[in-house]
């Protein structure tokens, strides 16, 4: 059984679809602010569950960072966190407002063997868990996180968005002793999706396929409108590392969060010199064709059904 922690943008939805299509049953999902404010994240999760028939429980987590701030990429993704070329997720009945920390704690307490967590947004919920219940961290086999960047950022010149949104949370998780695997910007940018993939999803010729194609198309448009021919698959690459780890090369690193720099706050400092004390596994290389196929197969299968 696995747990997914997400800020529920389009690439998060695709990542959840990939896990749901794998042999790893989803025990539950916790929501965190990030791609949008929490009300929009909850609406996205309810709409995705309605569209895709998800039956696992979805819980409401942190609405703001450890130090109280709220950062979103609204200038890129809009107020909902999911741009579209036309069709949107269905408006669904609001999710029950169940507490993510209580649900995640109960899941870990009930495990007979350590469980896995896939984290796709700011690490606030995982940091809160590690502070509130350090006795349960031994029940976590690993956390696979989409975040950080060894070379350059995307939200700022130095920082990747998920890290920038709550760098204190990342620092807490790094210090907790949790086994952390990181799929950073550089790894995810090895796996691309383009306009031709939108056509493949739309070719399913179903109402669900049309919605997924419009959402995928708007995701690709983020790159096209910036002069790039294809868009990196961020959260789906982390999901692929989660369900198909043999498609990746991870290497040990000592990772430090920059918390104070005027221009570098949120930067992940990745040290792989021989004398360091590793606290994470850092994604170096991906089998891009295989990862891309896993993501597109999940989309096409959902579009056709």
From TrEMBL:
Gene3D superfamilies: Ribonucleoside hydrolase-like. InterPro entries: Inosine/uridine_hydrolase_dom, IUNH, Ribo_hydro-like. GO terms for molecular function: hydrolase activity. It holds the Pfam family IU_nuc_hydro. Residues 2-291 form the Inosine/uridine-preferring nucleoside hydrolase domain. Keywords: Glycosidase, Hydrolase. This is Nucleoside hydrolase. It comes from Nitratireductor aquimarinus.
């Amino acid at each position: 059984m696995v747990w997914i922690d997400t800020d529920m943008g389009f690439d998060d939805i695709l990542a959840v679809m990939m896990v749901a299509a794998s042999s790893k049953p989803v025990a539950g999902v916790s929501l965190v602010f990030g791609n949008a404010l929490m009300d929009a994240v909850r609406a996205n999760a309810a709409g995705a569950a309605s569209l895709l028939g998800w039956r696992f429980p979805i819980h409401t987590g942190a609405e703001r960072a450890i130090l109280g701030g709220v950062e979103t990429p609204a200038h890129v993704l809009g107020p909902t966190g999911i741009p579209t070329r036309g069709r949107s997720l269905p408006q669904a009945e609001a999710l029950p407002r169940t507490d993510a920390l209580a649900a995640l704690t109960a899941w870990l307490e009930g495990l007979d063997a350590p469980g896995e967590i896939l984290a796709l947004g700011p690490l606030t919920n995982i940091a809160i868990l590690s502070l509130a219940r350090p006795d349960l961290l031994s029940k976590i086999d690993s956390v696979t996180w989409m975040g950080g960047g060894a070379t350059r950022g995307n939200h700022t010149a130095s920082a990747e968005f998920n890290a920038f949104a709550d760098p204190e949370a990342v620092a807490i998780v790094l210090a907790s002793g949790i086994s952390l695997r990181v799929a950073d910007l550089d790894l995810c940018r090895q796996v691309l999706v383009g306009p031709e993939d939108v056509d493949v999803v739309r070719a399913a010729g179903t109402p669900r396929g049309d919605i997924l194609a419009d959402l995928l198309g708007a995701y690709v448009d983020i790159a096209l409108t910036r002069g790039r021919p294809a868009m990196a698959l961020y959260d789906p690459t982390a999901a692929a590392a989660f369900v198909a780890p043999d498609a990746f090369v991870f290497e040990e690193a000592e990772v430090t969060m920059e918390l104070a720099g005027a221009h570098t706050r949120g930067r992940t400092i990745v040290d792989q010199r021989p004398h360091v004390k590793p606290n994470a596994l850092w994604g170096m290389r991906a089998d891009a064709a295989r990862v891309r196929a896993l993501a597109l197969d999940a989309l096409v299968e959902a579009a056709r059904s």
